[in-house]
Input
Amino acid sequence: MSVLGDLQRMGHEEVVIVQEPTSGYRAIIAVHSTRLGPATGGTRFWPYATMDEAMTDVLRLSRGMTYKNAVAGLALGGGKAVIIGDPHMSAGREALFLAHGRAVNRLQGRFITAEDVGTRPADFEIAARETPYVAGFGGRGGDPSPWTALGVVRGIEAAAAYRWGSSDLTGKHVVVQGCGNVGGAVALHLRERGAVLTVSDTEGARAAACAAAVQGRVVEPAMVYDVEADIFAPCAMGAILNDDTIPRLRVEVVAGAANNQLLRPDHADAVAARRILYVPDYVINAGGVISGSVALLGETPERMAQRVHDIHDTVRLVLELADRNGVNPAAAADQLAESRLQQREE
Output
């Protein structure tokens, strides 16, 4: 009943649970909304402990994609897929993503997907043998990660200007949580802009390599919330802003690429109560889905690149709306998304 309640409360159009025993494929595909266009969103590959955990993640992520696309001004809806398993697997990976392609294809274009945490562009080249409704690799928009990272950095610059009166990041101390495809690229961009970096990752070797590349230092994952810095950039998994971590933060700005950073909506108020400026995740991390507009919407590469840079202005708009309406930035972003969805219906 809790799942049905979540579906009703969050307004999903369709949720499909799929399994294929011969390949070991187990997945959930959630289509939240097609009001603005076909539902788009990445496929996450993760070792969820329970099916309930996977369902909660995919429902929240798919709803976030609807709002992300609405705020970004894209004629796309929101969806997400999660595959339950070991993202580091190699044996059997081809069969797994062929199965995923078949599952996506059964939705006949209502859902279009690409990479997310635990997946990579090569996985969708495999899935493309079974469906045309995948993107994020050569010939279909390319790897979205660099564009996600660029958009995050443009959003960080907007947040810096809002908090300190200047977008110049020279000398600003930024803690980057997660050194994967996006987080590592965010760190490199920040270093190029003169920031001082502390990085963290659950994989020690990856954290060390990232730190060496940006001339930064490594902090253990358990201690990442306790580092005194200017900006905290979460670029790994979600639900990291919660009752335990928010009191520990020693920064002035939280702005990063991770999806669903707030464990609960009221945690946005808890962040604001500490006078920390929070940039809503689906506003700042939209660069990846925007990059798909070339393949999905026929936009020019130049227009797409400008949309990614425009994340700076969108972040500024959301922060101004929050102040004007007396709400936290997460609520302001939701209001903006809902108004754009309502305009489409009218």
Notes: The two ends are 33 Å apart (CA to CA).
